[in-house]
């Protein structure tokens, strides 16, 4: 993408309304624009990151055997009356009347609707296990939306719902999502630590929040340092092997880890002092087994091998891609801007033409731009007539992992400078060598 | 995808509520489920088609220089008061109050919001032309939603908005979208004929509907047969060459073509009798130049080369991917089910194991399944224990272009049968030959 033809509205001033660094940086980098209280447009740079995040989420859901569907944003109130949540949900639910005065709502979540889909079609245990997910906009009418996309009213959510014959099946489904989440966050360059969460009246121990550590995190968390080095299962993980998956879950739930809410001083004291890690964290995912909470009132049952009807045992599994992006920025930035993990960076590289209009700089920049594209990489080419200092600042701000700096002096020596955004490391590289490596990748 | 692990709820009975063939087939093939009046979930098969349609739309928008953003579904009423449309829009607009009693609405379209984005950032003609698009759910509270996703209340829409300094620039932007639409529909296997549409109080001739012909089409259309053979510009079209693009538009607007509404008997009579084609059509896209209609009341202006402020000249360009899928089915089906064009088929091929449980049939089916996947193709493997007749019916119903039929007799001769869904043509093929061709494609 040529920057001269792109829409990247960088803000020079730090927006006053933004209280946290991710909100400031997303506004300054031209990723989002606020359209109302807790409501944001994703501008081209933001949309690219959102797409990359969703792609990883989707791939890991699919790998774990979940199937993608897409439910509508607007739901009938009648469905929620069946589960008893229509009255119970409170003011966060955006209630709507249509032209015929029928009660509707903007879905804050989809347990009811997906249970309705399930009960309409699935009648036998032979069609289980089943896990349906979708990535769709949700609306929760927060009384005081703030922190940008970290706590907005309209937000994107991946929510998966598992259906099983019994508790054991549901537990295996839960474990698959547990491992899927580990892989999902690792692929985004994050260390997400699963922490036991409150299960409320449901009971049991099948509820985990996935927390990433960030100095600016919203809550206090406590965990064993062992998590920081714990291996995450590879792409060859066999999700059909319940024992293998359970083994991973066991490993990832054995050392101590707890949010403030669930913190247990006694257990904490048993963690070796050198291994104690008390830090700030941000929740980026939540998985939850809730059994028959919806299947029973809504009549979602299957015939079991015993010939009898069984209410299915369900769980739900959420990741908020829009919120996740803010969390990643909280965990990965410096005073100059965002530092994207490679896998979700809006561009893999940015070519900075230090002297647009200079015939040699233009020629080399164009040649590199074409080579990056031919290699199948996402490349931004700063071909604007801004001064070099401004270009460097923009490249740092938007956090592209690699900066290829094309200047008159380097070009005269058939060289460019390659700067890694994360380490700040700069290296002079012969143009021919860079072109050869791109050609090899193509 | 193994059918035994997929969620493909085929209906045996034809749903009574479905009045048109696309609605019937989408329900029967387990593509969609109705969730309320004019509201549908997309089940896994439907979601796959929707994704493929959106991918083509996106690629052709990008190719023509449009930039993807994503605006929220819920909008503030204040924006629509600026343009004067809040009161004018009528009951199709879903009006909402939030917990603070603020007026909001579910966007039926996005002219106001995108104009707000534009005016917030763009100040100079140097940043033009600009075309921003998004693919987002819209809601129009139709008094009587019907025909499935053909006329639903919540529907997916790709809407693009162009911003230019003056009419000439806007016309060039309009032409680019015109050609982009030709390419978009052709890639989906459709012949879409651009027909002049009413421009209302805006005036001028820059409004076209793109119509595909289908016996069950909603409206009467008239056109010259020349359109059926007219070449569509290739992937190498240079969208930065205004003259080249204008040439394509001229070619595609010269022969007679009109909807009933715009039909001109006198001009029609001049079409050679053998060239007259009166048929039924379905609108699948609409492009429209509306000049300063929003930029003026909303104050979206840029400084021109003359140093003066100019209200930008705008156009909008819509395709409804959800509706389009229904239109494609109307145009492409037979008595046995859907016939997907290759480019948007949910799967490229389906492997039909006629005798699941038979060691040789299973072995060959598995081998072919692995080979299709390795070739990067989307393949469905019917590994269920349904009888062969049911499997054939399902494969025809869901319209996958190629059926690979693995039966005991064929396997004994190291052969399978390959059936083309569209032509019905069947050919016996040595397994080794099929494997070799897949390996070559990998």
Describe the structure in your own words:
- Chain A has 442 residues and is an alpha+beta fold.
- Chain A has two domains: 3-338, 2-Layer Sandwich (BirA Bifunctional Protein, domain 2); 347-441, Anticodon-binding domain (Rossmann fold, 3-Layer(aba) Sandwich).
- Helix content of chain A is 33%, strand content 28%.
- Chain A contains 14 helices and 23 strands.
- Chain A has helices at 21-28, 44-63, 77-83, 85-88, 111-121, 167-187, 242-253, 265-269, 295-298, 321-331, 359-374, 388-398, 408-412, 431-441, and strands spanning 32-36, 39-42, 67-68, 74-76, 94-97, 103-106, 130-139, 154-164, 192-196, 207-213, 219-224, 257-259, 276-291, 301-303, 309-311, 313-319, 333-334, 337-338, 349-353, 379-382, 402-406, 415-420, 426-430.
- In chain A, the strands form six sheets. In chain A, strands 3, 7, 8, 9, 10, 11, 12, 13 and 16 form a nine-stranded mixed beta sheet that branches. Chain A has a five-stranded mixed beta sheet with strand order 20-19-21-22-23, with helices on both faces. The first copy, chain A, has a three-stranded antiparallel beta sheet with strand order 4-6-5.
- In chain A, helix 2 runs antiparallel to helix 6 (167-187) and helix 2 (44-63) packs across helix 10 (321-331).
- The longest helix of chain A is centred in the middle third of the chain and has 21 residues, at 167-187.
- The radius of gyration of chain A is 24 Å and the shape is globular.
- The first copy, chain A, starts with 20 loop residues before the first helix and ends with a helix.
- Chains A and B meet through strand 1, strand 2, helix 2, strand 3 and strand 4 of A and strand 1, strand 2, helix 2, strand 3 and strand 4 of B.
């Amino acid at each position: 993408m040529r920057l001269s033809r792109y829409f990247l509205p960088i803000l020079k001033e730090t927006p006053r309304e933004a209280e946290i660094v991710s909100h400031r940086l997303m506004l300054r980098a031209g990723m989002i624009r606020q359209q109302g209280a807790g409501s944001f447009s994703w501008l081209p740079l933001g949309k690219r990151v959102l797409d990359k995040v969703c792609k990883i989420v989707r791939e890991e859901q699919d790998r774990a055997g979940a199937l993608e569907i897409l439910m509508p944003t607007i739901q009938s109130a009648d469905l929620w009356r069946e589960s008893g949540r229509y009255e119970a949900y409170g003011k966060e639910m955006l209630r709507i009347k249509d032209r015929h005065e029928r009660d509707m709502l903007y879905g804050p979540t989809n347990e009811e609707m997906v249970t309705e889909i399930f009960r309409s079609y699935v009648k036998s245990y032979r069609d289980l296990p089943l896990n349906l997910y979708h990535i769709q906009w949700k609306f929760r009418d927060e009384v005081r939306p703030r922190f940008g996309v970290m706590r907005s009213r309209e937000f994107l959510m991946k929510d998966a719902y598992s259906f099983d014959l019994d508790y054991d099946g549901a537990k295996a489904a839960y474990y698959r999502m547990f491992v899927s989440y580990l892989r999902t966050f690792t692929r985004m360059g994050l260390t997400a630590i699963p922490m036991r969460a409150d299960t409320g009246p449901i009971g049991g121990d099948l509820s985990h929040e996935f927390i990433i550590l960030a100095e600016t995190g919203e809550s206090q968390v406590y965990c064993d340092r062992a998590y920081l080095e714990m291996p995450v299962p590879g792409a060859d993980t066999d999700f059909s092997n319940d024992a293998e998956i359970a083994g991973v879950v066991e490993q990832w739930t054995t050392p101590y880890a707890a949010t403030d809410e669930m913190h247990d001083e006694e257990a904490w004291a048993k963690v070796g002092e050198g291994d104690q890690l008390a830090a700030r964290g941000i929740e980026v995912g939540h998985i939850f087994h809730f059994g028959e909470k919806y299947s029973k009132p809504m009549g979602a049952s299957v015939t079991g091998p015993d010939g009898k009807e069984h209410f299915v045992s369900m769980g739900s599994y959420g990741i908020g891609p829009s919120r996740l992006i803010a969390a990643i920025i909280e965990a990965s930035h410096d005073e100059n801007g965002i530092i994207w993990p490679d896998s979700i960076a809006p561009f893999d590289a940015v070519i900075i033409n230090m002297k647009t209009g200079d015939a040699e700089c233009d020629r080399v920049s164009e040649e590199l731009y074409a080579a990056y594209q031919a290699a199948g990489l996402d490349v931004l080419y700063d071909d604007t007539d801004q001064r070099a200092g401004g270009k460097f600042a923009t490249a740092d701000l938007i956090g592209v992992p690699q900066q290829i700096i094309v200047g008159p002096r380097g070009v005269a020596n058939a060289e460019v400078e390659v700067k890694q955004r994360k380490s700040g490391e700069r290296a002079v590289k012969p143009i021919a060598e860079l072109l050869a490596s791109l050609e090899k990748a193509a």
